[in-house]
Amino acid sequence: MTKKPEKVEVHLKYKNIEKTLSASPEEAWLLLNKFFNDFLPSFEVANKLLLNVDMQQLAKDCEGLIAFSLEGPNLLVSKSRLTDNETLLLWLLAVYLGHKLDILECDALSKEELQAKLGKSSKITSTRLGELVKSDMITKTTDEKIKITTFGVAQLQKDLLSKIKAKANA
Questions:
Q1: What pLDDT, in 10s, does the model give residues 136-153?
Q2: Which residues are CB-neighbours of 59 under 8 A, at least 6 positions away?
Q3: 64 and 33: one domain?
Q4: Cα dihedral sign for 122, 96, 159, 67?
Q5: Residue 94 and residue 45 in one domain
Q6: Segment 66-122, tens digit of pLDDT
Q7: What integer best gives the mean pLDDT of the chain?
Q8: Which one, of 152, 140, 144, 133, lies nearest residue 94 by Cα?
Q9: Do 45 and 59 reside in the same domain of the chain?
């Protein structure tokens, strides 16, 4: 009688990826090595390409620009020091941050709310919002509200927040 080769079962879990291997010890070793050599490097590369927002850093970056009160978010920078687009982006960033920090229920504002916060006509507000949509900084939600995109948050954090802070302190 020939002896049936023993099988090894290996359960791999890496972040949100799980895989179970069942094979002879030699095959399991080869499959495990293949996983580490082939899959993980490409997963790490792909992971580096994903836009992620560090909420702690974002909150720190927004100090002096955005604050929250019982009435809701507030901009601490005078509108007169900001462009229309910067004002709209800061308001949308404020509701995004407030929502992520569980201070606000919603991460979007209506066009009318943004128009009131901007203090400009409907036509000017629509034009500015259109420009920001085209540049992928903001998007419309299914219920016709407007919210900042992850790309918009990343761009604000990378390029605009420091410029806005400089304007605020000028």
A1: 999 999 999 999 999 999
A2: 97, 101
A3: no
A4: positive
A5: no
A6: 999 999 999 999 989 999 999 999 999 999 999 999 999 999 999 999 999 999 999
A7: 89
A8: 152
A9: no
* pTM (2 d.p.): 0.74
For residue 96, CA distances in Å to 49, 103, 152 come to 22, 10, 11
Pair (42, 60) in one structural domain: no
Tokens encoding 67: 């604050």
DSSP state letters, 40-104: HHHHHHHHHHS----HHHHHHHTTTTEEEETTEEEE-S-GGGS-HHHHHHHHHHHHHHHHHTTS-
- Residue 109 and residue 124 share a domain: yes
Residue 104 and residue 159 in one domain: yes
For 96, the domain range is 55-168
| Cβ–Cβ < 8 Å for 126, 95 | no
pLDDT at residue 1 tops 70: no
Task: Mark which of 49, 66, 82 sits at the end of a domain.
Answer: 49
Q: 72 forms bridges with which residues in the sheet?
A: 69
Looking at residue 81, its amino acid is R
Terminal CA-CA length for the chain: 89
Q: Which residues of 157-170 are buried (b: 16+ CB within 10 A; e: fewer)?
A: beebbeebbeeeee
**Total of domains in the chain:** 2
